[in-house]
């Protein structure tokens, strides 16, 4: 088993936990595609494990096979979580992120699209996201909205963290195809006020509003941005 690290050494520069990593973009894209294909199959595995009706002996044999696969993946591991990295071209990657991480089978994953009014995402949630029977778990709805609202507040030009998030569950959100939308309502200094929703084919099921804050230590001076 080779122990060659997949990436060159990370350079020393790190801002607020965001790690500068000068891996060339084509190499990031290549590795991301490889990990995403693994995560896709693991996601299938999670759904299959929830819904399987095969007999107990077969479940035990599959468990043992999977334990062997876990050992193979453990042969070379990061010392901690995947974190958030970016290179000199501002290609960023957060492969372990709970909502969008390319390598994270727990992430649906959400594919966030920036549009004229903010962001939207179309997603299909299956059995792994169930809370009440046939419905999306309320915490999952909050997690997905939190993420798309944070991306909307960050607007590809700053980093914001969730300060306050308020949810209104108007009716149950059915598992299946859903649309998330988010937009900025207003801004006050480092505070960005964001509104968002989840809808199924019959309309909105969940509404949210939140205050996202650009931490003082991560703030990019607008003067510097315009003079650059
Ligand atoms: C690939 C790349 C992807 C990168 C992009 C990925 C986006 C992903 C988005 C995911 C979102 C998340 O899950 S983020 C993770 C969950 N959130 C967190 O862990 C945040 C934890 N909290 C913090 O770090 C901090 O408390 C902050 C940053 C929220 C605020 O700290 P601060 O910067 O020191 O704020 P401070 O100076 O005290 O206050 C500034 C102003 O904000 C107000 N303020 C302060 N805290 C709050 C608050 N919780 N709720 C409301 N308002 C608040 C103050 O009253 C003040 O208003 P005024 O006096 O000026 O009027």
Shape: flat
Residue share in helix: 25-40%
Strand content: 25-35%
Uncertain regions spanning at least 5 consecutive residues: 1-13, 221-228
The CATH architecture of the largest domain is Roll
The sequence of SSEs as H and E is: EEHHEEEEHEEEEH
**What class would the helix/strand composition place it in?**
alpha+beta
Helix count?
A: 4
CATH 4th-level superfamily of the largest domain: Hotdog Thioesterase
CATH fold label of the largest domain: Thiol Ester Dehydrase, Chain A
Q: Any idea of the CATH class of the largest domain?
A: Alpha Beta
The biggest beta sheet is recorded as: 6 strands, antiparallel
Physical arrangement of strands within the biggest beta sheet = 5-6-8-9-10-7
What can you see in these coordinates?
This protein has 228 residues and is α+β, with helices and mostly antiparallel strands. It is built from four helices and ten strands, in the order E-E-H-H-E-E-E-E-H-E-E-E-E-H. It has helices at residues 25-51, 56-74, 138-154, 222-227, and strands spanning 14-15, 18-20, 84-86, 92-93, 113-115, 118-125, 161-169, 176-188, 191-200, 203-213. The strands form two sheets. Strands 5-6-8-9-10-7 form a six-stranded antiparallel β-sheet, covered by helices on one side. The protein has a four-stranded mixed β-sheet with strand order 1-2-3-4, with no helix packed on it. The radius of gyration is 20 Å and the shape is flat. The relative contact order is 0.12. Bound molecules: dodecyl-COA.
């Amino acid at each position: 088993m080779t122990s060659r690290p997949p990436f060159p050494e990370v350079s020393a520069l790190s801002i607020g936990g965001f790690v500068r990593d000068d891996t060339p973009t084509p190499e990031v894209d290549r590795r991301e595609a490889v990990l995403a294909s693994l995560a896709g199959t693991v996601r299938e595995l999670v759904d299959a494990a929830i819904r399987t009706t095969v007999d107990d002996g077969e479940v035990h044999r599959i468990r043992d096979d999977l334990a062997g696969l876990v050992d193979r993946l453990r042969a070379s591991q990061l010392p901690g979580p995947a974190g958030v990295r970016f290179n000199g071209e501002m290609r960023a990657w957060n492969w372990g992120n709970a909502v969008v991480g390319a390598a994270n089978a727990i992430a649906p994953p959400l594919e966030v699209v920036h549009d004229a009014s903010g962001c939207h995402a179309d997603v299909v949630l299956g059995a792994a996201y169930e809370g009440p029977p046939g419905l999306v778990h309320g915490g999952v709805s909050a997690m997905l909205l939190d993420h798309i609202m944070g991306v909307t507040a960050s607007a590809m030009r700053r980093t914001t963290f969730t300060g306050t998030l308020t949810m209104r569950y108007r009716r149950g959100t059915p598992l299946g195809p859903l649309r998330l939308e988010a937009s900025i309502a207003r801004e006050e200094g480092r505070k960005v006020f964001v509104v968002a929703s989840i809808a199924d084919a019959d309309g909105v099921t969940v509404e949210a509003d939140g205050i996202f804050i650009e931490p003082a230590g991560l703030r990019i001076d607008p003067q510097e941005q315009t003079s650059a």
